[in-house]
Amino acid sequence: MTTEPKAFYHLPGLFEFYDLYNAFLPLFREHREYFYDWCEIGSIYGAPRDCIWGGGRVGFGDEQPEKVAALLKEYGISARLTFSNSLLREEHLSDKRCNSLCTLFEQGPVQNGIIIHSDLLLDYIKAKYPGFYFVSSTTKVQTDFNQFEAELERNEFRYVVPDFRLNKELDRLKALTGTQKKKVEFLCNECCWYKCHDRKRCYENVSRKSLGEDCEDHVCVSPNAQRGYRFSDAMKNPGFIGIEDIQNTYTPEGFSHFKIEGRSLGSAIILEFLLYYMTKPERQLEVREAIYLDSTLDLF
Question: Which of 178, 187, 209, 219 is the most buried (most CB within 10 A)?
Answer without folding.
Answer: 187
